[in-house]
Each structure stands twice: as structure tokens, then as C-alpha cells.
Write a structure and sequence with these properties.
The complex is a heterodimer of chains A (172) and B (580). Chain A has 172 residues and is α+β, with helices and mostly antiparallel strands. Chain A has 5 helices and 9 strands, in the order E-H-E-E-H-E-H-E-H-E-E-H-E-E. In chain A, strand 6 and strand 7 form a beta hairpin. Chain A is globular, with a radius of gyration of 19 Å. Classes of the chains: A alpha+beta (172), B alpha/beta (580).
């Protein structure tokens, strides 16, 4: 029997600045599919007043050689200005925002609110039977909060994906 | 006051400014305004092909043989999708093309309009860059940048999709050169530290080999000269990929022949045993490396490439040098400063032993012409004409690469990366247009030639004296060979049944048809082909069951080559079948 083998992978956060032109997101997302790379999360937004430049943060995983290829392939796209591997360039900060809906009554509801305080999650909507919490942090922090809410009436999670930036005064 | 012009007129003016000689195209609804602007235009010549795939391949042949970008013009929908194979082909072989596709009018985009296809979406991953132009005011700048992107750095195809209303709407066409965005500037020169390191490595290597590729050809004739200069100093043996043939003269004593799956024994063994591999403009393709974990295991590797993404893609190298081949070779030569290379006598002696295997030899066949013999005679008899050769894809292509010999760049046009059957005829048409008066021959197989056979009419229309030399063995020979070697001779659908009479087909298109049935007719047939002042099809009947050797079987190492006369039995295991 022939089996497909898997290699050990590592997680990398990549930051790109790109020309904000039609099709650029499809081009980048499609490059990942076409070449068999992984996207764990992808965020994109304009960052200049004239709407000319967008910043994209991609979280990916793969063997080191593949990560190197991903960077080289992204750099090869004409509208891509630069690609910075934050994981490699680091240290860096990364943050993600999540909205988490928890439905429940009685003790579970009180416990959910208590844990939210511990995590500094803010209720941004509430009814007598539900909360929507807003939580910002590293993906791990959000993971653990979501896991805790699992027993306390978690019904829905929305996450933005990671944005990141190099620490210190230097700009990427 | 600068006058306003229609998008179509801006396009034509821009092409003229780019010194475009030929536009290979086919009209249709969504490009009618452009065709109207071309009507009576004498500054550039439109070549009407018979199918859009032919347009793209003809533009490739023109580009590869002249070093100038090829220009394609097709309509929306099926026009664009038919051109996609040629675009993908040019992408993998790094051929500069500018492909202009018509699109339905902007208000209709996305409405499943007649002959609408998402050309930008479809071509996204098989071109170097693409554009959908929605405002005629942007057209001049887009075309200018498209030519820059197609021709500089690692060359490749650039697609410009122009909706019909944008072709009709008017905008100001700047008198002078357009303002360029300047966002694309490939690195030409290698880093100084890397160059110094490369010189050290080359100077102390005891068993070096140059492994050269299509990048040397793409870099221009100067790269070829510099490669020869550097080789003359170092005396290292030279091998080349399929795409790089011609960069180093095939009659040179240090020429090893092509490497890879159907490369020579000496080339593959030299790669395996080398202590230094100097890769110039090649990309460690799977057809070259064979089994990766056994590829050149004891060598230090220098990789000169203009494309950073080609470095460490499949093979990890020790010293990458990002830059243009010619520029980097010049830097190495400048930095060499009268050093003395190592004495390579011992290394050359090993090469001589490998050569003695005579891996390109083949069995005589009293009953039929060995296909290798046909290529050898074609080479000998046309050599004085310094011909341009194109091929289709398959056994005949590999035999041509092995037995036809090249002495200069831009003479060898073949679909290497994508392996597109049907490439050769349109490509040789493009080459003939770019090289009037030159002997231009498509070496074909009877199966491949049928894939773009309609282009016979194009050559007839423009009175192009191209020659097609068909090695007719009545099989899709390479498929048959793989089925014989890896699938216990189960010849599933590889027989070329119901073949046309190629001589009559030639005559039907106003060509000359010549049939060669046996070895006694071979030389006379080839000479008749050369002597005829017009297009010729030669139907050369060859041995039907010949295999192309040497061969590195699927999943094997360079050292496990099959040589002529090796007997292969049994079936291949699944992991080897899946590998290549």
C-alpha cells in the first residue's frame, strides 16, 4: 500500500504590504492553493489614507523549506511590495480579536462572566440568557477561553485572524 | 493639446512604440474594435492563425528564436481559454509574451454574457502577471509595464484583458513615454560576497561541472559567450537541461550532452560524482534530478538564478546567487583575475570512462529506419544551414535533443516545462517569421503533429517555407514506452490509429509532401526537403517499437540509468509509479 507522507511543520506569521488593486487577495489566496501551501488565517485591510496600500497578515504552517518558498513565491508577485516573516524576524507582537456568544442561566452564566473577567473579555451584548464577549489576545489565549466556555453554553465564535508587528522602534 | 484616442487605437499605438513586428491573433466579437484599428495598419503585421493555441505557440517560437517578446491577440471566452495552454507553456519555460485578450463590456462582466470567461481568474496562476483594464486612460501605462514585466527578470507571459467598451471609449494618449510605476526591478547583479565565494569554490574544485539551463538562453547571447569564456578558464565539463541546449557548443570536447531522465550516461554520472555543481540558469526540475535524496550527494552547489523562488525549491544549495546569468558570469570572470584552476586530468579521465559507455548508441534495424538514425542524418545534412529546430513532445523530442546538436543559442525551440504536444508547428511558424531565409524545421511525431495540424494553413497563407519532419512510428511513442517499462506492456490507448496520409494532407494545404519508407530513401528525402523552396511535410516511417534510452526510470537515481540493450521486466511498485 502506498501512503502519503507528512513532514513536520512549524507555524509562521507573515506580514505583506501590497498594492491595493483588484484581484490581489485572490492572487495571494490562490497561490497558496495552487502550490499546496496552508493558510491558518489571513487578514487584510487598507493602511494608507489614499487606499493605495494594503497590509496582509498570513498565518501559515509548513516545513522550513516550504516556508522559505512561500516567502519567495509571494515576493515574486508583482503587486507585492514586501514580505516579512515576523516569526523569523521577531520578537513580535501578535493579536487576534474574537466575539464569543455564550447562552445560559443560573450558575453557568455567573461562572462564564467570572471567567470573562479573568480573561479580560468584555461583554459587548447581553440579554438575561446570553452574553457576547469581545476578547483580544494571542490565538492561544482565545483558544483557552473558547475551550472554557464550551462547558458553559458556548454557541458561536467569530475570530478575526492574527495581525502582528515587530517589537521595538524599528518599522517592518 | 494632446488628442483623445480610443482604447483600441491606444493599444495599437503602444504596440508600435514597443517595436512590435508581429501580432499573432484571431479575431472575434470582443476584439472587433482592435481589429478595426489594425485595418490597413502598416507599422505592424497581424498573423492570422487557425486556432488561438497556435497564436500563443507561434508567439513563443518567435520570442524564443529572436529574443524579442511575442505578442498575441485573441477574443474573449473561447479565444482566451484556447490560448491558456500556450500561456501556461510560456510561463513554465520563461518565454516573454504579451497576450491581449478581449473581454465583454464592463457592464456585462459577471453576468455570464456571450463569450464571457473570467480570463484574469483563469490565467492567474499560469502567467507572470495579468491585468483587467477598466479605463482606457490606464491602457498605455499598463501596456508599457506589461512589456517590462514580460521581458525583464525571469521572462514570462503577461495577460492584458481589455473589455470591449474600454476599446471603444476614448482617453488622452500621452505624446511622450508614459510614467512608469517602477514597482518591478529584478536584481541583476549578484552580491559581491557571494561572487567572491563562488570564485573560491570554482578555483579549488577538483571535480566541477557546469549545469546550465534556459536561463542562459533567456539572458541573451552575451550569457552564452561568457559561459564559454568561463569554461575555457576552468576547463570544467558542461551539461545542460533540455531548455539550455545551444548555450554551449555540442562539438566541444568538454560537452557532456544533456542531463536528466533521457540525458547521457556521462552527464548524469558527472553530476552524481562532482564535488562542485555550478548551476547557471537552471531550476533542478524533477526531470533533471531524478530521485531527490540521491541527487548529486557529495557536491557543493552554486545556483545562479534571477528568480529567488527557484532557489532551494527542490534541491537545497550551498551558495545561491540571485542575479542575471550574463551579469553574474561577467562578475565571476572579472573577479577571477588570472587565478589558476585545479588540474582536472583525473576528473576528465573519469568522464572519458563514462563516455565510453556510448549511452546514445542504438540497435541497427535492417527492417526499418531507427528513429535516432533519421535525426542523425537530418542533423548532418542540414548542419551547414545552421537551422532552427522546434519539436513537439515525446520520444522524437528526446531523440532530437540527444542526436541533433546545437552550437548557438535561440536555435532550439521545445516545450520543456509544460510538455505541450502541438507546440512545434506553430512555434516554427513564429520562428520562420522572425528569421526569414533561415531553414526552420519542426521535428514531430505523428501523434503530436495532429494536435495543431490546422496551422498548416497559416504557413501556406504567409508563404513560409517551414519544414515538418515527422518520425512516424504509429504510436504515441513515449506513452507506449512507459507502458512497456512500467505497466507490463499494457498499451492502453497509445496506438495512433486512423492516421491521415500526411503526403496528401500536405498537398491539400498546398505544401509538398515527401514520404521516406526505408533507409535508402532517407538522405535523398531530406535533401529534397531542404532544396524545396516552400513548406514541406516529410513522413519518415521509422521503427515502431524503438525505446528512448538512456533513461532514468521513475523514482530512480542518476546512477540507476537504463542503457540501450538493458532488459526491463516486471512491473514497477506503486511508490515509483506515483513519483514522476
Amino acid at each position: 500500500m502506498t501512503k502519503i507522507e507528512q513532514e513536520a511543520t512549524e507555524r509562521h506569521v507573515l506580514m505583506l504590504t501590497v498594492d491595493n488593486e483588484a484581484g490581489i487577495l485572490a492572487k495571494i489566496a490562490g497561490l497558496f492553493t495552487a502550490r499546496g501551501y496552508n493558510i491558518d488565517s489571513l487578514t487584510v485591510s487598507e493602511i494608507t489614507g489614499d487606499h493605495q496600500v494594503s497590509r496582509i497578515t498570513i498565518v501559515t504552517h509548513g516545513p522550513p523549506a516550504v516556508i522559505d518558498q512561500i516567502r519567495a513565491q509571494l515576493e515574486r508577485l508583482i503587486p507585492v511590495h514586501k514580505v516579512v516573516d515576523l516569526t523569523e524576524q521577531g520578537p513580535y507582537v501578535e493579536r487576534e480579536l474574537a466575539l464569543i456568544k455564550v447562552v445560559g442561566k443560573g450558575e453557568a452564566r455567573v461562572e462564564a462572566l467570572r471567567l470573562a473577567e479573568v480573561f479580560r473579555a468584555r461583554p459587548v451584548d447581553t440579554t438575561t440568557e446570553s452574553f457576547v464577549f469581545e476578547l483580544t489576545g494571542t490565538p492561544e489565549k482565545i483558544d483557552s477561553f473558547v475551550a472554557l466556555m464550551g462547558d458553559l453554553g458556548l454557541v458561536e465564535t467569530a475570530r478575526t485572524g492574527v495581525v502582528g508587528m515587530i517589537r521595538g522602534k524599528a518599522s517592518t | 493639446m494632446t488628442e483623445e484616442r480610443s482604447g483600441a487605437q491606444i493599444l495599437v499605438e503602444s504596440l508600435v512604440r514597443q517595436d512590435v513586428e508581429f501580432v499573432f491573433g484571431y479575431p472575434g466579437g470582443a476584439v472587433l474594435p482592435i481589429y478595426d484599428a489594425l485595418f490597413g495598419e502598416e507599422r505592424l503585421r497581424h498573423i492570422l492563425v487557425r486556432h488561438e493555441a497556435g497564436a500563443a505557440h507561434a508567439a513563443e517560437g518567435y520570442a524564443r528564436s529572436t529574443g524579442k517578446p511575442g505578442v498575441v491577440l485573441v477574443t474573449s471566452g473561447p479565444g482566451a481559454t484556447n490560448a491558456v495552454t500556450g500561456i501556461a507553456d510560456a510561463f513554465l519555460d520563461s518565454i516573454p509574451l504579451v497576450v491581449i485578450t478581449g473581454q465583454v463590456g464592463t457592464p456585462l462582466i459577471g453576468s455570464d454574457a456571450f463569450q464571457e470567461a473570467d480570463t484574469v481568474g483563469i490565467t492567474r496562476h499560469c502567467c507572470k502577471h495579468n491585468y483587467l483594464v477598466k479605463d482606457p486612460a490606464n491602457l498605455a501605462a499598463v501596456i508599457d509595464e506589461a512589456f517590462q514585466i514580460a521581458t525583464t527578470g525571469r521572462p514570462g507571459p503577461v495577460v492584458i484583458d481589455i473589455p470591449k467598451d474600454v476599446q471603444i471609449a476614448t482617453a488622452i494618449f500621452p505624446e511622450g513615454p508614459v510614467q512608469r510605476r517602477n514597482r518591478y526591478s529584478p536584481q541583476m547583479a549578484g552580491g559581491e560576497a557571494e561572487i567572491a565565494q563562488a570564485i573560491e569554490l570554482i578555483a579549488k574544485a577538483k571535480a566541477p561541472v557546469f549545469y546550465t539551463g534556459g536561463g542562459v538562453i533567456n539572458s541573451g547571447p552575451r550569457a552564452t559567450d561568457l559561459l564559454r569564456e568561463l569554461q575555457a578558464i576552468t576547463k570544467a565539463p558542461v551539461t545542460s537541461t533540455l531548455m539550455g541546449l545551444g548555450a554551449f557548443p555540442a562539438d566541444h570536447e568538454d560537452w557532456l550532452g544533456m542531463l536528466g531522465m533521457h540525458g547521457t550516461y556521462e552527464a548524469n554520472w558527472a553530476m552524481n560524482q562532482a564535488d562542485l555543481i555550478i548551476c547557471v540558469g537552471a531550476r533542478f526540475d524533477d526531470r533533471v534530478t531524478g530521485r531527490l535524496d540521491a541527487f548529486a550527494p557529495n557536491s557543493t552547489k552554486i545556483h545562479i538564478d534571477i528568480d529567488r523562488a527557484s532557489v532551494n525549491k527542490t534541491v537545497q544549495v550551498d551558495l545561491p546567487i540571485i542575479g542575471d546569468c550574463a551579469t553574474v558570469l561577467q562578475q565571476i570572470l572579472d573577479g577571477w583575475k588570472g587565478r589558476k584552476a585545479q588540474d582536472l586530468t583525473a576528473w576528465k579521465a573519469r568522464v572519458t570512462e563514462w563516455r565510453a559507455k556510448k549511452s546514445l548508441s542504438y540497435a541497427e534495424n535492417p527492417a526499418a529506419i531507427p528513429p535516432q538514425r533519421a535525426i542523425e542524418r537530418l542533423f548532418e545534412l542540414t548542419r551547414a544551414h545552421d537551422p532552427i529546430i522546434s519539436t513537439e513532445v515525446g520520444q522524437h523530442q528526446m531523440w532530437a535533443a540527444q542526436h541533433f546538436h546545437f552550437f548557438g543559442p535561440n536555435k532550439w525551440l521545445t516545450s520543456g516545462g509544460l510538455g505541450t504536444m502541438g507546440y512545434g508547428l506553430p512555434a516554427i511558424i513564429g520562428a520562420q517569421l522572425g528569421n526569414p531565409g533561415k531553414l526552420c524545421i519542426d521535428i514531430a511525431g505523428e501523434a503530436s503533429i495532429q494536435m495543431n495540424i490546422q496551422e498548416l494553413g497559416t504557413a501556406t497563407q504567409y508563404r513560409l517555407p517551414v519544414k515538418i519532419f515527422i518520425l512516424n512510428n504509429e504510436w504515441m511513442g513515449m506513452v507506449r514506452q512507459w507502458q512497456e517499462l512500467t505497466y507490463e506492456s499494457r498499451y492502453s490507448n497509445s496506438y495512433s490509429d486512423s492516421l491521415p496520409d500526411f503526403v496528401k494532407l500536405a498537398q491539400a494545404y498546398g505544401w509538398k509532401g515527401i514520404s521516406i519508407e526505408n533507409e535508402g530513401q532517407l538522405d535523398a528525402g531530406i535533401q529534397e526537403m531542404i532544396a524545396y523552396d516552400g513548406p514541406v511535410i516529410v513522413d519518415c516511417r521509422v521503427a515502431k517499437d524503438a525505446n528512448c534510452f538512456p533513461m532514468i526510470p521513475s523514482g530512480a537515481a542518476h546512477t540507476d540509468m537504463l542503457l540501450p540493450g538493458d532488459v526491463v521486466t516486471g512491473t514497477m511498485d506503486d511508490s515509483a509509479k506515483a513519483l514522476v
